Amino acid sequence: MSKQLLLISCATLLMMSCSKKETPVPQTSVEYLNLNNTVVTANNVLVIDLDKDGTADFTVTKELREGDTGENDLLEFRVTSSGQHRILMLDNGTPARKEEGVLIKNEDELPYRWDPLLAAALLTRVLTLDIANSYWQGEWMNQYNKYLAVQLIKDGKAYQGWIQISFSHILPTRIIVHDAAYNKIAGQPIKAGQK
User: Is pLDDT above 80 for 5?
Assistant: First the structure.
């Protein structure tokens, strides 16, 4: 009898140790913002008030600026964070591009890090003297329905979010900003595209 009890106990312990532990589901309370597929061109700037508190959190623009060498001008689609808000990006200003369903976390995702006070260049058109040789460059070229990872900072706490963006070659070349959302629970992740 004691051998059977010992065998049953060992078998039970073995089965319990091999069972999968469930990963806790992140807590979410999502604030969703439909941006109605807003088109950003040189004449149309988009101001995003993600937390709907009446102040700008992020701005999407198309700007002309002088190149670093002074030889060529650059036409850039940029996302700028307001205040202490952040964008997940590389040191060179290239923002992370997320697929739908990918988790956006509070921590840096090396080589990307949460960067405050910087503008992220989605795309750059290098304008040469011979316009036929001008060209677009950047990680967001030919990307449709991708997600920019953003972080709102309120009262010293970080709230993860996303902005859904597409690039369009239809002239004039433009960025389309579809929608955005953030997790209203501080420090908790959100999935790109989660509403």
Answer: no
